[in-house]
Amino acid sequence: MALLERINAAARKKVFSLQEAFVLAWNAIRFIFVPPFYREDVIQQMDSIGVQSLGIVVLTGFFTGMVLALQSAVQMQRFGATTYVGSLVTASMIRELGPVLAGLMVAGRVGSGIAAQIGSMRVTEQIDALNVMGTDPIKKLVTPRLIAALLMLPALTVINDVAGIFGGNVIAKFYLQLPTSLYWATVWDQISNGGFVLRFIPNDFVHGLIKPFVFGGIISLTACHFGLRTTGGTEGVGVSTTRTVVTASILILVTDYFITQALLALLPS
Predict the structure, then answer these.
(1) DSSP tag of 37
(2) Which of 42, 99, 101 is nearest to 67 (CA)?
(3) Rg of the Cα trace of the chain?
């Protein structure tokens, strides 16, 4: 009976935590349209989430593109199809690797930072002070981070995609001896052959921009959720940051699968 009671208590705790996460997400989204608007906080978070993540995102994209082109070339040389390296790198980066890698990098760098910052405010009772002053912590702390992440993740993903395609170009030129013009021609062929939405927007761009928008929401809300639930002093802050990175990374990978399934059904190539 004691074991069953512990299982029941653990299950109720998980359900309650999930309910809190959904309530937090609803309030954070609702406060986007309710004054007062903390524009300076949003700009500050955009700098923290977007500008300060540029270095790691560019390096990740560039070397991923190089490795992708190199590994593909080894296999494609057997069939004399190395001229299609540009197409393969472009499709892989724009549709999958760009959004997922940018999301994971931001989850590791920014998600942990948000959880640590809000968690520290929780254990030092600064959030209680906000409540006493009549300031809603969700509106002041969560909504600006949510807006900034929703805006900056797609931008970082585009930069990651471009860096990856340039990385593939380096391998195509210096390892496969392919002309740069041929490489970029195959890049454009891949984008145009994937189809268009409303005649002008390539399907690949739709695939590549919807995902980071969702990932931005996952990262910011997960980090804020664990930050606000922090207990136990500095040790609790460390636990919250770890849970944020692990949970956000898993959610990104799981969500990526279901978004891909939905987009392939709605926007077949």
Answers:
(1) P
(2) 101
(3) 22
| Distance from C-alpha of 228 to C-alpha of 46, rounded to nearest angstrom | 21
Q: In the chain, what is the straight-line distance between the N-terminal and C-terminal CA atoms, in Å?
A: 56
Q: Look up tokens 């993540």; give the residue.
A: 53
Burial class (CB in 10 A: 0-12, 13-18, 19+), 185: middle
Cα distance between residue 73 and residue 50, in whole Å: 33
The length of the chain in residues reads 269
**Tens-place pLDDT, residues 47-93:** 999 899 999 999 999 999 999 999 888 888 887 778 888 888 988 88
Using alpha carbons, select from 101, 99, 98, 111 the residue that is nearest to residue 218.
Answer: 111
Q: 197 or 173: which carries more pLDDT confidence?
A: 173
- Which token pair is 228? 């606000």
Euclidean distance between CA atoms 99 and 212, whole angstroms: 5
Instruction: In whole angstroms, give the CA distance from residue 43 to residue 149.
Output: 11
pTM of the model: 0.88
238 Rama class: left (phi>0) / alpha (psi -120 to 50) / beta: alpha
Would you list the DSSP string of 120-176? HHHHTTHHHHHHHTT--HIIIIIHHHHHHHHHHHHHHHHHHHHHHHHHHHHHHHHTS
Q: Which two tokens stand for residue 213?
A: 């928008």
